[in-house]
Amino acid sequence: MSEIKVMNYIDGEFCEASGGQRIEDIGPVDGKIIATIPRSGADDVLRAVQSAKSAQKNWSALTLEERADWLHKIADKMQENIEEIARLESLDTGKPWDVALNVDASRSVNNFRFFADFSKNIDDLKFEMDDASNYVLRKPLGLVGLISPWNLPLYLLSWKIAPALLMGNAIIAKPSELTPLTAWYLCTILDKVGLPAGLVNILHGYGPEVGQAIVENQSIQGISFTGGTQTGKIVAATAAPMFKKLSLELGGKNATIVTDDIDIEFVAKEVARASFLNSGQICLCGSRILVQSSIYENFKEALIKAVNDFKIGPVISKEHKEKVLSYIELAQQEGGKILTGGDISESEGFYINPTLVEGLAIDSRCATEEIFGPVATLHSFDEDADAIDFANITDYGLAGSVWCRDESRATEIAEQIESGMVWINTWLHRDLRVPFGGVKASGVGREGGMWSVGFFSEAINICVKH
Ligand code: NDP
After folding, report:
1. Mutation choice for ligand 1 from 144, 231, 282, CB with most ligand atoms inside 8 A
2. CA-CA distances (angstroms) from residue 3 to 28, 32, 37, 300?
3. Which residue has a Cα nearest atom 31 of ligand 1?
4. How far is the CA of 174 from the centre of ligand 1 (A)?
5. Which pLDDT value is given to residue 342?
């Protein structure tokens, strides 16, 4: 198969980076080059900013309904090409076809559809006083920088692009250089539907080069970033002195709490999915499984079986595979016992079998640091209060799940977990209207429904004295 030549998309044109250099994109299934991408830098960001400025003026003059119509047009064209989106996502990330189609591609289409429909829920805000009326304008920020990771490439990028466009902004985006294909393919769709040039500019390349140049650019008024906590710190430190609006969706180390009243077989399967979907490379995956001591041994047995039956793809890169394997080694040094997995398959690709570790202290490095791969640790607890303490021991606070038949007991536990989102008797069950985001080291701000609308606009109050 010949390599795909990914191009930047600036001012409605497919182009090389100004420096002319290219980066290889390696497929995780066999470690072979699947594409090359432009190595963009600050000059490319400047060009994109120029084109975005003029495009944004016209775009923000459209009504919300007109912009929503454009989002529907994009969603329609994506839907026509959904299998190609899934094919490219699967090629780039190595994830199984059904996950690429039913999770990544479907949700990417739905992100545009959802925000187009959601525009109907954006009411005019008015506050009457005895002698005056206030009304609130939702003005666009202007130019926004969108930076996204490799684990759910188009899913996460479109989750930012759709509301940013809806609220009248123009976009300078940078996908992860490890997974550029679907962002580039989206540009071909934008081109086909005739979205005005300069509204969406997608620049490929390395984070510390083109990503940093986007964050540093004075004309870009808001940055929506999804990625690791360490990178989030750099983004925040760069953007904060310029008073840019910032949304940071960062790492997680989520607890899965299993109480003694559950259906062991059923919950074991659900917990295996929550730990290992997308090879554990979802920020929401439950990588610390806390099981009530009275059912620990029985649950462990059922979980090992469920994990062994759960089919996963490779991890994203050679470097990431080495990182994950180093944590598996560390787990053993920290006194952990590998219950299943841990071995490397013979394939040339970046495969690691789903790995379960028990016997680690709850505050050990493997039980508290984000591994972001197919590794979960198993711990036991006696009282619900212990489970809550164990869940809250990490610096992170993104998500969690509680598996407990007694809903009031489950709710009591859920409300005490320090994280932005908790699922009860389910996982990754998403209503796109609800707030999505983390606390503590997992981020600042929320995405979803009104929260995305709020981030991608400035609320301006006009007070009229009668
Ligand atoms: P990184 O933080 O390494 O990268 C995220 C993005 O930032 C990439 O596009 C990267 O480019 C770019 N980047 C790197 N350095 C800079 C910089 N100095 N300025 C601007 N941009 C930069 O994360 P990963 O791609 O490794 O993704 C995995 C992480 O993302 C995990 O920690 C995971 O938990 C988190 N995540 C969080 C989610 C959430 O909603 N909270 C959802 C999904 C993932 P490049 O690839 O070239 O380095």
Report:
1. 231
2. 14, 10, 10, 45
3. 228
4. 10
5. 83
